Amino acid sequence: MAADRRTSLTRRPLRMTLLMVALGLAGAVRAQSLQELYEAARAYDATYLAARAVADSAQYQLGQAEALNRPKVGLGVSATRTETDPPSKVSRDRFGNTVSNAGLTASYALFNRSNSVTIEQARKNVEVAQSDLDTAEQDLIIRIATAYFDVLAAKDALATTQANKTAIAEQLASAKRNFEVGTATITDTREAQARYDLATAQELAADNDLRVKGVTLDQLVGRVGVQPRPLAQPVALPPVTPSTVDAWVNTAESSHPAIRKAQLGLDVARLEIDKAKAARLPTVDLSGSFGSQHTTGTGVSYTGTTTNAQAAVALNMPLYSGGAITNRIRETVSLEEKSRNDLAYAQRSVEEGTKRAFFGVQSLLAQVKAYEAAEASSQLALEATQLGYKVGVRVNLDVLNAQLQLYTTQRDLARARYDVLVNSLRLRQASGQLRPEDVTAVNGLLAR
């Protein structure tokens, strides 16, 4: 009977290894890299595509604004036919005439400060839209990385749950055999059965969680049945570079899209003050026209063609607007103060978020090292407990607890590694440095 237990204990690590290999081969059939799925999401995700459309539209809005400083030319053509029936005592003949007109008109703003400010604001708005697009792209990277590694974590959780269930099943069978021959009590069997039933419930929950996480990833990339490629073994997590939080904060202050957008908002608000003040300034417009009129008919004193041309310069100077301009200036000054506070809030929020993300990654890296040590210790503890059970100094429950501790540690270690990668990307997002090249770097850590 002791030989049975030894054989069972010897085969257990092998069975778990085979199970993990089988799962890995099954996923490798259609495994897709993070880079591939990110490219798919860029072409499918509605939120990102909407931000890109807004950025494109800002360019057209700039074109509309720039048209204010360009000449405007128009063409007008008309024809009028007039018929007259005179009184019968005067004449029995109807007479009439046709007048045809054609002309060109042109105008050009020689001086209009408001138009110039509007153009400057449109240029700033193009940069604002680009900042929003950068934010949307960074958000997409985080969402695709989170969904990707959530699926891998769910797969690992299911695999460890199944391995734990298999080990419990073997321990349950051993307890039953020992009870039948009288070397163990019924308590060992019932404890193992209870653990087996619990492991079954946990397996069902883990399987459902994997399905849900898979649906999330599928929806994000617009595909069905996506199988992410696992991390290469052994796992080599990159260190945080630079290694000081101040360096990250300094970079964030100069490159974060939220700060850049807030600064642009302040610039636009200042331009709005200039525009409000421009309402007090004169405007100078140049206009001109050239036309031709052709008249034909009977009963008219003149037939033929006449032409005319004119040019004019108009100056308009506002004198009094009932206080509207003054109040508009005061309004824009208040809005500038709001924009200044928005910028300060953005700077503080980015600094706080960067520090939180930095310390979070540092903590996760330390946790990974601790879990790696715990995994090795748990493996040794399990082997010692199994040996103690074999010689009769440990009970079945001790073995079950040692097995659970090992598999739980392995699951948590895998989750911590994925969290390091995702939160490293979040750190770059928090500091405004996240780029598609970072996806490529993480993709290099995946199995080939």
At the fold tier of CATH, the topology name of the largest domain is: Outer membrane efflux proteins (OEP)
The average pLDDT is 89
The CATH class of the largest domain turns out to be Mainly Alpha
Strand coverage percent: 5-15%
Helix tally?
10
The low-pLDDT segments are 1-28
Number of domains: 2
Question: Order of helices and strands, N to C?
Answer: HEHHEEHHEHHEEHHH
**Secondary-structure class:** alpha+beta
Major sheet description: 4 strands, antiparallel
Keywords: Cell outer membrane, Membrane, Transmembrane, Transmembrane beta strand, Transport
Subcellular location: Cell outer membrane
Protein name: Outer membrane protein TolC
GO molecular function, one term: porin activity
